[in-house]
Specification:
By secondary structure, the protein is α/β, with parallel strands linked by helices. It has nine helices and 14 strands. A hairpin with a 3-residue loop joins β2 and β3. The structure holds adenosine-5'-diphosphate (ADP).
Length: 355
């Protein structure tokens, strides 16, 4: 039946530093759910919210308690918890989860000011994305699933250069300086949240090219927590085994430096996890089907769904490597989680009448 009645909202947290691929990830996620998300119609053009049939994505920058001037006066960055209103964040996420609409503030990224609020209705799936979705324990406890995008400094630097230097005309020195200036607060308040994440996508420089410092070829790890309800980690060949796989051969075209997969159990912040790793990049995206056919527990609805999604969005950044592949897989796992929770809720009253 319909699952829009109150109290059925599931809440997903997505944490990452800015410029680390959150919006790309959101586009992949909403695509898996079958519809592109767009800003609220007729509202503030500077709204940070994205809405599709099933999903509403809210940006946690909207809970800044200090605007740009306020932060400057007090000498705190946007990463600092003192610049953010966690009480309001908690109240509103809780309300939406309970099926109650809220008047959410809007942080205007253009002016740096707080604009008049916008009405947010409870969706089927609420994604809260930003710097601090897992910082406050009350908010964290509301999350049905959480993801942390962990971009290593080398790669972050390479991406910022591409965006801020190539597209915005900043200098190399100023990019370096801005990353350095953010680092203390990033290390203190953002990075520690990864210990709480159910899934972490870690992006590192390749190990296939000795002393690579271009940051073009990436080694990407999907770290999946064991024992999370409604979430069965993906595996390669044989669940729980430790595997190294170089699929280049007759079925997969690999030019230098090739592709290498790894899979196995590990520990992460003293949690048991499964880790799937891909180093290198695909030459031909349609050949991804060969890799997909060797993965299990991927929560696809038909053979080749991952490859289809990746081909559909071949123009998104990271589509030829592990970032795009693992973002797509996490999207499928979230759809599966949502469907399991919905099915469970639908059958619960039935169980009660039986008893
Ligand atoms: P955010 O929403 O976190 O600010 P975006 O998804 O807008 O991040 O990405 C910011 C920029 O980072 C992109 O324009 C692109 O240059 C770079 N980027 C993001 N994801 C990737 C990726 N997987 N591979 C290469 N570059 C990427």
């Amino acid at each position: 039946g319909e699952i829009t009645c109150s109290g059925d909202t599931i809440v997903i947290g997505l944490a990452a530093d800015s410029g680390c691929g959150k919006s790309t990830f959101m586009r992949r996620l909403t695509s898996v759910f079958g519809g592109a998300a767009s800003p609220p119609k007729g509202g503030n053009p500077d709204s940070n919210t994205l809405i599709s049939d099933t999903t509403t994505v809210i940006c946690l920058d909207d809970y800044h308690s200090l605007d740009r001037t306020g932060r400057k006066e007090k000498g705190v960055t946007a990463l600092d918890p003192r610049a953010n209103d966690f009480d309001l964040m908690y109240e509103q996420v809780k309300a939406l989860k309970d099926g109650v609409a809220v008047e959410k503030p809007i942080y205007n990224h253009v002016s740096g000011l707080l604009d008049p609020p916008e009405l947010i209705k409870p969706p089927k799936i609420l994604v809260i994305e930003g710097l601090h979705p897992m910082y406050d324990q009350r908010v964290r406890d509301l999350l049905d699933f959480s993801i942390y995008l962990d971009i290593s400094n080398e790669v972050k630097f390479a991406w910022k250069i591409q965006r801020d230097m190539a597209e915005r005309g900043h200098s190399l020195e100023s990019i370096k300086a801005s990353i350095e200036a953010r680092k203390p607060d990033f290390d203190a308040y953002i990075d520690p949240q990864k210990q709480y994440a159910d899934a972490v996508i870690e992006v590192l420089p390749t190990q296939l090219i000795p002393d690579d410092n271009e940051g073009k070829v990436l080694r990407v790890k999907l770290i999946m927590k064991e024992g999370v309800k409604y979430f069965n980690p993906v595996y390669l060949f044989d669940e729980g085994s430790t595997i190294s796989w170089i699929p280049c051969g007759r079925k997969l075209t690999c030019s230098y430096p090739g592709i290498k997969f790894a899979y196995g159990p590990d520990a992460y912040f003293s949690h048991e996890v499964s880790v799937l790793e891909m180093d290198g990049q695909f030459d031909r995206l349609d050949e991804l089907i060969y890799v997909e056919s060797h993965l299990s527990n991927i929560s696809t609805k038909f053979y080749g769904e991952i490859t289809q999604q990746m081909l559909k969005h071949a123009d998104f950044p990271g589509s030829n490597n592990g970032t795009g592949l693992f973002q797509t897989i996490v999207g499928l796992k979230i759809r599966d989680l949502f469907e399991q929770i919905a099915a469970n809720k639908a059958s619960a009253p039935l169980e009660a009448t039986k008893a």
